[in-house]
Amino acid sequence: MVYLLKWNSYSLEEQALCVFTQGILNRKNIKVFIDIDNYLSYLHEEHKEISIYDLIIKYKNEFSNIITYNLDSSDVSINLAAMLCAKYDFLAVPNKIIDKVLSIIDLKVIYNLDNFKGSNAYRQKIVFNSVKDKLNNNALVHQVVKKDNFHLMLRDYSIKNRLACIYTSENSEDLSFREEILRWLKPVSPIYGWNDDEISFIKHISKYGHYALPSDWSSNHSYFIESNKNKIKQKTKRTEIRKNKHYLAIVVSDGDNIQWLERDFQTTSTFGNRLKSPLNYKITWTISPSLINISKEVIENIYNTPKNDYFIASVSGIGYANILSFPDKFIKEFIDKSMKGMEKSDQRVVCLLDGLDTFTSNEFVSSRLQYYSKNDKIIGGIWEIDPDRYSSGNGKIIFSNGKPFVSVRYSLWCPYATTGNTPKSFLDEYINKINSMKPNIHSQDGYTVLNVHPWSISINDLDYVISHLHDDIELVYADELIELIKENMVEKYDKNN
After folding, report:
1. For 381-416, b where at least 16 C-beta lie within 10 A, e where not — what string?
2. Which of 247, 255, 243, 309 is nearest to 279 (CA)?
């Protein structure tokens, strides 16, 4: 039996109480699930709706005592409470509802975190050092506490798995504390949640040999368990590829966003709206292979799509890291984890993301790609290269062990528009660019990866672009593009890369 909590029926403070309670009870095999957004579609067990207060009364003996905190979107008290609960199984209650909770159960309030003063970094460091002997250092929850980007979710996962739960910005005190945590973690650990400055944060955690799983909006991770299946299969529909055309692979970015894949990816996103489109052409989507270990129900639902979709591993395999900034001593372990996740997820192509400034030499880049290319389960990769919205590689192909790693040539990413508001003039510009490309199977100029940015390009925008392409343009999946390049270019170019 699974106890179901209806998210939208509670106040903000009660929602926080739901998340904290869920984390502790799910660790004790008392199944609790939160009905939020489309998550209920992943619940396939018998379930019963219950109020958070009835749940606490029913299982009050599972909590040691009570701590209280001020639920403030600009304060890390909620993270302090999460770490204390991870060690001591406290019931953490926001101050605004403590009287109501005390009226129904007879547990004792042993500490009010409002009495703990100091900077965010100072307080988190003190609490972390007091509980780290009981915390696991094989993962971290880095959950943003900032007024304009504050979420209650995900802390159930840190509590269940006894993980540190922190938030650090880019100021010097926070960075010093973050470095302490990154050194404490086991090499190649996942960091769940998100941050304020994507580029700086990813570069920083990559330097210490870790990777991010963007999941600050994620719910119910304390309920989901790792898949026992060895592998799931894609259901991609294949069609015959026309010869002597300019080959174009449409690759949608941002599939590293775990919370996006779980929440509205299948409903109101570019992918979800694709099901309503009258057109049905080949699209390659990036998707995190970590889903098979985090919430297999999500990736299974996505793979069951009826359209012409193909899925490759999102950046840079098992999680988001800059592979060219990763420490030499940890990179093999990162790639091994990536290959295992990709194999279980039936993915043969990996997407990479780096900055042009990290491409110090062809020899260095080739040495890093060797870790991917020597694995017989992978056929090649797609490379998103900053700073020009993933297209700074200009279509260059780098070969490693005869396997192509193809950089994005064009990026359908409108920097001044949100999804559905991209002007036709912007789309027409890219239609003209693509239509100007000529067939040439023996040159990298005969192959194009078009990145699609899902936060500014809708399915209607993409339909418009595809419907205006010339007959010389042949749409292929990412793996088909790579196989075509291997077949027609590898002998000529592999020796020179």
Report:
1. bbbbbbeebbbbbebbbbbbbebbbbbbbbbbbbee
2. 309
Question: Which secondary structure element, helix H or strand E, spans residue 269, and what is its range?
Answer: none
Cβ atoms within 10 Å of 103's Cβ, excluding its own: 9
Strand partners, 32: 3
| CA–CA separation, 64 and 67 (whole Å) | 10
pLDDT band at residue 496, thresholds of 50, 70 and 90? very low
| Nearest residue to 395 via CA among 360, 384, 366, 456 | 384
pLDDT digits (tens, 9 = 90+) for 360-391: 888 888 888 999 999 999 999 999 999 999 99
CB-based burial, 26-60: b 16+ in 10 Å, e otherwise: bbeebbbbbbbbbbeebbeeebeebebbebbeebe
Residue at 289: amino acid letter: P
Output phi, psi for 286, to 5 deg.
-85, 140
Sheet holding 211-214, edge to edge: 163-166, 136-142, 190-193, 211-214
Convert the pLDDT of each residue in 307-344 to its tens digit. Answer: 899 999 999 999 999 999 999 999 999 999 999 999 99
286 contacts 315 by C-beta, under 8 angstroms: yes
**Contact (CB, 8 A) for 445 and 438:** yes
3-state secondary structure of 406: strand
CA distances from 208 to 121, 218, 221, 329 (A): 19, 25, 25, 10
Q: Report, in angstroms and rounded to the nearest whole number, the Rg of the chain calculated over CA atoms.
A: 24
The Cα 33–Cα 36 span in angstroms is: 9
The span from the CA of 397 to the CA of 474, in Å, is: 19
Residue among 192, 146, 205 nearest 165 (CA) = 192
CA 364 to chain centre: 27
Please give, one letter per residue, the 3-state secondary structure of 159-178. Answer: HHCCEEEECCCCCHHHHHHH
Q: What is the pLDDT of residues 160-179, one digit of tens each?
A: 999 999 999 999 999 999 99
For residue 35, CA distances in Å to 12, 22, 117 come to: 15, 12, 35
Token digits of residue 88: 């001591």
285 closest CA partner among 268, 262, 302, 264: 302
What's the farthest any 2 CA atoms get from each other in the chain? Answer: 78
The DSSP 8-state label assigned to residue 325 in this structure reads T
